[in-house]
Every structure is written in C-alpha cells, then in structure tokens.
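fwd from M.: "can u put these together and see what the complex looks like"

so here's what she sent:
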Amino acid sequence: MNQNYEYFSYDDDIVKKFLLATMIWAGAAFLFGLLAALQLAYWPLNLNSEYLTFGRLRPLHTNAAIFAFAGNAIFAGIYYSTQRLLKARLFSDLLGRIHFWGWQLIIVAAAITLPLGYSQSKEYAELEWPIDIAITLVWVVFAINFFGTIKKRREKHMYVAIWFYIATIITVAVLHIVNSIELPVTFLKSYPVYAGIQDALVQWWYGHNAVAFFLTTPFLGLMYYFMPKIADRPVYSYRLSIIHFWSLVFIYIWAGPHHLLYTALPDWAQTLGMIFSLMLWAPSWGGMINGLLTLRGAWHLLRTDPLVKFMVAAITFYGMATFEGPLLSIKSVSAVGHYTDWIIGHVHSGALGWNGFLSFAMIYYLVPKLWSTKLYSLKLATTHFWLGLVGILLYYISMVSAGITQGLMWHAVNENGKLVYPDFVETVTRIVPLYWVRALGGVLYLAGFILMAYNIWKTLKTAPKDQKEPTYAALKPNFESSSGETTHKKLEGMGLVFSVLSFIAIAVGSIVEIIPTLSLHKYVEPARVTDPYSALELAGRDIYIREGCYTCHSQMIRKLSAEVLRYGPASTIEESMWDRPFQWGSKRTGPDLARSGGKYPNLWHYRHMMDPRSTTPGSIMPNYPWLYTKKTDYLVLRKKLSVMQSLGVPYTDEQLAQADLDAQKQAMSIVEDLKQNGVEDPKLEEKEIVALIAYLQAMGKKERAE
Amino acid sequence: MKQEALLYFTDTWLTLLGLVLFFSFFIIMLIRVYSLKKEYFEMMSKLPFKELEDER
C-alpha cells in the first residue's frame, strides 16, 4: 500500500436506510394528502371520526410531506453526496444510526399525536414540546455528524452543495429552537412564550424559512450535486452558484412577513417582507438558470432519459414557484390570493414539482448505484414522470383557478357598496368542482408514485445478494494555504468560519425583524387593551386548537374594504395580544371568525357543530359529534391559567384558584340558555361543546370594560 | 379606514436598515466573486466528478 494514501469506504448503508424511509413516508404523505383533498370535495369522507377529520389530517399530511418524505430524502442525498464531495466516510456510523432511528421515531410520534389532537396549531410546527425537544436533539446529532465529516475531509475545497447543507443545518436549528420556545402545561400540552403579533411574526419567520431552509436550500445543494452527475457535465456557472448561495441565504430570512400582509402586523415589517420577497426573484432565477443550463449541449437527453426529465421538470417548478412566491408577496396580489387555495396551489407546485420530482430523480439515480444493479424499467420511470406531471398540472391549475375565483368573489362589491356574495358559503360551493379536479391530480401523482415503488422493488430484487463495501484510496489531506490564495478560496476551505458567516447572514434579518416586535408595548394602544379569556373560554380555545379549526378559519380581518364590509372593523394588535398561540390562520375554507362572538345565538353554534348543514346549507365543514360526548377537563384549568399568568397574562390569583368553579358557572349559564331554547341533553355542562361555544362567543368581544 | 391602515406604519428606519444592509452585502459579494480567476471556478465545478475507484 502507498504510504501517501489513506484507504477508506463510504457509509452507504445509512444512505440506503434513508432512501427506503423516503419511499415509505412518501406513500403515507401522498395518501393523507389525497384523503384531505377528497374530504374538501366530499365532506362525508371526514367519516364523523375525530381522528380522521380534516383539521387533524391536514397537519398530519403537511408534517409527513415536509419532515418525513422530504426530510428523509434530504438526509439520504446529503449523506451520499457529502461523503463523495469531501472524500471521507461519515464522521460516525453510530451517530448516523441515532439520526436515522431518532428521526423515524419522531415521525411515528407525530403520526400518533396529531390524529389524537395534540397540536400547537403553528403550521409545520404543530408537534408538542417533548417531540420538539427530540427534534432538537436529533438535529444536533445530524449536525455533529455532518460537521465532523467536514472536519475529517480529504478534499480541501468545499463544493457549493456543501455550503447549502451548512446553511440548512444552521438555519433550521435556529428556526426550530426560537419558534418552539414554550412552557409545558401537561405532558402533551404547552403554550408558546410569544403572544399575538409576536407569535405571528415568529411563526411565519419560521414557517416561511422552513420552506426556504428545509425545502429549498438542501434541495438546491442536491441539485448542484445530482444535476451535473445525471447530465454528466459540470454546473453551468460556478460563479453564479456563489452569488446564488449568498444572495439566497441573506435575503430569504427577511421574507417571512409576506405571510401577514394587511394584518395587524406593524407595516414596517410587512414592507420589509414584501421588498425582500421581490428581491428573491433574482437569486432564485439565477439558481434555476444555473441548474437548467447545466444541460447545455445535452438537451437531447430530455427526450430519452427519465431522470433528466424529472430533474429538468423539478428545476422548472422551482423557477415557477419562486416566481409566483414573490408575485404573491406584492400587496395588491396578496389581497386577492391570500387565504385562498391559490396559496395551496403555489406550495404544491413547489412540494410536488420541485421537492417531489427532484427526490424521485435522486432515488432513481441512487438505487441502482447503491445496490450495484440496473433500474428495472426506464419505461415505467418515464410513465411515472408523465403521470406525475399531469397530476401536478391538474392540481396547480385547479387550485389557482379556485383561489382567484374565491378571492375575487370575496372582494366583489356592487354599485351600492354592498358585497355581491355576502354568504361566504356561496364562495365555497362555487369551487367544489375544482376540488374534485385537484383530487384527480392527486390520484395521478399517487399512481405515478406506486409505479415507482414497484419499479424500485423490482430493481432491488435484481440486486446481487452479496455486496461488499468498496474501498477507496485518497491522498492524505494537506490543507496548508498557499500564499497566492485569495480570501475567498481560504474562506471556502475553512468549514467553521464559513459556517459562522452563514449564520451571520441569516441572523441579521432575523434580528432586525423580530427583536423590535418583541417589545409589544410599543405597539399596544392602552385604550384598546383587551381582557384575557375566561377559564371556560380558554378551555374552548384549546378544543378549537385541538380540532385544527385554524386550518380552515382565520381570525384576522385584513385592512381591506371588502373584509371590513363582510366581517367588521379590521383586527387590531390588541385583540390577539393574549393569544397563545395566535390563531390568525392562513386559509379560509370557512369564514373569518375574529368577530364571530355574539353574531349567532348559542343554539346556532350547538346545532352547527353537530351538523353544519343544519344552519348553513351547502357547508363542507365536517360534523363534530364527539364534542357532545367528551367531557371538558375542568381540573387542568387552574394549571393552564397559572402557566398563562407566568407568561404575563393578567389573571389574578383569585381567578387561578377559582378557575374550574368559574368555568363551571359560565358553562351552566350557556346550558341554561340552550335548555330554554329546547336543547335536552343531560349533563351538558360537562361536555366540550359548551366550552367551545363559550370561546366562539368570546371572539371579538374582549374589549376591556371602562 | 386610511388612518386605521397607517396606524402601525412606524419604525421606517428598520425598513431602510434592512435595505442598506442587503445592498452593502450584495455589492461586497459581487466584487469578491468577480475578483476570482476562471481556473478556480473550473476546478470547483469539477469536484463532483472527482470519483474514486474501488481499490479492492
């Protein structure tokens, strides 16, 4: 053996594990998504089951798609490409296994707790505090393994894909930790430390950047590695990739407030969010062009190679989604698009097209390599591509059409200054046919995936049984800088310094946007301060959160004339100043509820939750029969108020001591009213429906008495 | 309505600060990137193709 060389092998077993997990969870995520889509088209598919109702299924679907499917795909691709780019085996096989099994356990925990209703109701951050801690620990294990591999690398230069991975690992850690700061109430219930606008801003800083740094930057890293490999030619412009990287990580983090345009969020933050979103056009399209032009001189492959088809379509969807995102961030466009299914179409063009297709290309590329065999059928892979593509297009076109239709109907005002469609339900029934088209798109996408699963299974069956790890030889590392190196070259070879700079790039925007908003008193008008919820209202609010009502109802009347006409005066900061978590929502399949208190009598709510169609003909809302049998947990209310008090909510000690008694008293008064109106239900005051009615009646009614 | 809409349009210096920070950062980055030589970019872009052979 040559003394100047080191002999080593790659840990491909961990890559195989993550790849197979990607396949399994992809199937689950797509199935949950399809069922949720069908529930919106045909409400009886909620099956009157609390565990399968849309409000609980949707978070399960989004978590499965993002963290289970995309997450496992990211880990597989990162572990494969990092080892090869750095010419080193992973830092620790053991840490790799802890990472793998830990992540799968987190997914299983999510799959159990979300249908049971344990949710923080913060989108893509619904999981409760023990799982949040587990995510942090597993992420740290991943980070140690990744940075340990950088430390022991044999290739001095860090290719641009590695930069994207570094930014991902650092930023996701920051986002997750900051957004998950919460105080536990019980083993699976907590309240966030942030309230109202603080919570909204932190959540959408997280939510937007979960898309940016979980679904974009790691996939861009994978694109920069796998696109050249699949096309068998270097990336079009490495210079452009550097500009792409630094611009993207610096700009992306500022764009979160575009999810909160026209809300009660201070306008300086909205403006910043909008401007930085618009600036994202440049680096995003720079990246897309760089990816697509990598195929220069080999465009003919697009006709024959299904992997190239998937890759090119994925990058094109990236370009489309990153064009549409900034477009939707323009205030006047947001006025129409926000809260509608346009946003759902937008995110799915990214998730199904960019993340899904890129993952599929990677899987088709890696499985034959890792198992030392050939792909069973290129024809099946091609059929998968076309099924998937038609599926995405049906999904996207139907949802954008539905969104624009609904947005325009909400805003339509006649010559007398009245709403043309005052009944919200009319704007829903109009788009139900498009929900069927969306579901058809989902069926096609799922069918394509099933073909892929079959293709991969047959491929694995042809793999040789006895496979040994290849051994590689590389020159011993010698990273001493030569005197002629420029600052950038030195920097790019220094993992730690590079990581710190990436952190600073994302920290600047976070600090400028979030810190000022944490001083809530600056924005609160003393004359408008509201009272906190009563104990029973708080119990009802937690039921509202458990049932995922926020997945269809907002609690934020935007400063738009049509909204004021429909719902009443625009929402203020003070109205949600005690809300932990905030419930501003992001989609309106049902109307805004910010001022629903007192709009209807208790009896209306009682009947509506039992069968929404009895009060609102044409409604597609599920029935909630379990609320009429399950009992409100009065005993935990003292603890809940106590935690709220420690977070700064002005409950008195007396209110804490009397929480359960006060709640029961308020429940009795609602029950009396229901009885007077003909409801006969023994021990109704114990049932959850009464607590929920108390909360629904309190919305927009908490102005402090003078 | 207009008064309502502008109620929270405060701290405009924060918006300005964000833009100044970004443009300074972007200009410095561009200068650095364009000061690098073509050979460096070529070498870097070929890194994924530096595959090792099985030594068994």
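replying to her w this: Residues 281 and 323 of chain A are 6 Å apart (CA to CA).
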